[in-house]
Structures are given as C-alpha cells and as structure tokens.
Design a protein that fits this description.
- The protein is an alpha/beta fold.
- It has one domain: SGNH hydrolase (Rossmann fold).
- It is built from 14 helices and 5 strands.
- About 45% of the residues are buried.
- Keywords: Signal.
- GO terms for molecular function: phosphatidylcholine lysophospholipase activity.
- This is Lysophospholipase L1-like esterase.
C-alpha cells in the first residue's frame, strides 16, 4: 500500500469523527456570527500538534490528506460545515518539531504568500522542550521576541490579518512532562505567549485551561498519553475551544 493510500485510509477513517465534531461543535441553534466575510482564507501554523501527521505533498486547501488527523481537521470541518455560505479556504502548514524561529524561516512561502485573512498559531512547546533535552539553547526571552517579530512582520505585509494565538500547553500527568521543570518553568512561556497576544490584540485560545478542565473528567492518558500530543478526544476539545475563539473574532 502506498503512502498516499495509507493516508487516505487513515483520514477516511476519521471522517465520522470529523463530521461529529463539525455538528457537535455547533449543535445548538445559536445564531451564526454575523460578520464572517463572503470569502475567507484561514491558515493554521505550528508544530507537531498542528501538523498531526499531515501529508506535506498534498498542499490543496480543504483536503483531508493535507489537514492531518488532529484539531485542525476537526476545526476545519466545523468551519466548512458551519459556514457553507462563505467561500472558505483552510490550510494547514504545521511542521513537527518547529520552534518559532523555524516558523520564521518558512513564513514567506507558507504564510504570507497564501494571503490569509486569519492566521492561527500554536507554537512554544518545542521552544521549551528542546531546551530541556539539549537540542536548543533558546530562552523564554528569545521565544517572546521571536514571536513578537513574527507577528509584526506579518502585520507589516498583511495589515488587515486577524491572528489567533493558541496557548502552548501540557496535559498534566503525561509521561513526557514528568520533569518538574515543566511545572516550574514552562508557565513563563505561556505567560510570554499571552503577553504577545495582548500586545497584538489577537484571539486567544486557552488550551491549558481546556486540558486542566478535561482532567477533571478523565485521566491524562485519555486526552493525550505523553502529555504533549493530544488524542482524538483531546483534539476535539481543542477544536471546540478554537471555534469559540474564532467566533469572537467577528
């Protein structure tokens, strides 16, 4: 079986979940946001949580293979299902392992050239994690500065763009986040992300609260065993929170 065939089968298997997400995320008869434009391009950017195993050879918008199997798939399904009246284009350009400076290195081709109206960014866990394991010598100040520069660069070229920043998060109790430094030092990265969100008046997706609340319902392994990468259930909760923030943009 070829790689593309495996990707098709894997993503097709998730179609019922994506459909369920698109319905359940907006199952109530609440009115749709009134000001979503008639044409809208949404770009998801970030690391492996956003990448979620997407086929990087498939770059077409609104495509299962290019969307991956995580929260982007479910949020994109909800967007498209909720706004059929809008000519809506959704791209996923997350790359596993990325830190902010690596987003910047590919930002022209994989962000600015796509001319997005909304850019959703979830980045930061690797800026900390790779420092812990000796693969990176960054600091929280580097993270904050790199993120600010990235948003300013984008605003300079796309002054009307709307940002959504996702809070970098951990699922407490996961195997990869047992080191006490996650509890003691990682919150500074979350605070830095929030500072940048406030400075640029972005939408803010409070993923840490999402997972802290979720842990009251089921253990960490249910939401994402390693504490970093969410399960299908964790991805669903992320998509819910993402849609709530998206709706507030308008």
């Amino acid at each position: 079986m070829t790689h593309s065939r495996r990707a098709f089968v894997r993503n097709a298997a998730l179609l019922p979940a994506a459909f369920a997400g698109s319905v359940a995320l907006h199952s109530s008869p609440a009115p749709k946001p009134a000001h979503v434009p008639e044409q809208l391009t949404v770009l998801f950017q970030g690391d492996s949580i956003t990448d979620a195993g997407r086929n990087r050879e498939r770059t077409q918008a609104n495509d299962f293979g290019h969307t991956g199997t995580g929260y982007v798939l479910l949020a994109s399904a909800a967007l498209l299902g909720t706004h059929p009246e809008t000519e809506l284009t959704s791209y996923n350009r997350g790359v596993s392992g990325n830190k902010v400076y690596q987003l910047a290195e590919r930002w022209q081709e994989e962000a600015l050239d796509l001319q997005p109206d909304v850019i959703s960014i979830l980045i930061g866990v690797n800026d900390f994690w790779h420092m812990l394991n000796g693969k990176y010598d960054g600091t929280v100040d580097v993270y904050r500065t790199d993120l600010k520069n990235l948003l300013q660069r984008t605003k300079d070229e796309l002054p009307d763009v709307k940002f959504m920043l996702g809070e970098p998060f951990i699922i407490r109790g996961g195997k990869a986040v047992e080191d006490a430094r996650w509890a003691n030092e990682f919150p500074a990265y979350q605070e830095a992300a929030r500072e940048v969100a406030d400075e640029f008046d972005t939408g803010w997706v409070p993923y840490q609260r999402v997972f802290d609340d979720a842990l009251e319902e089921a253990p960490a392994a249910y939401w994402g065993a390693d504490g970093v990468h969410p399960s299908l259930a964790g991805s669903y909760r992320m998509a819910q929170a993402w849609m709530e923030t998206f709706d507030k943009l308008w």
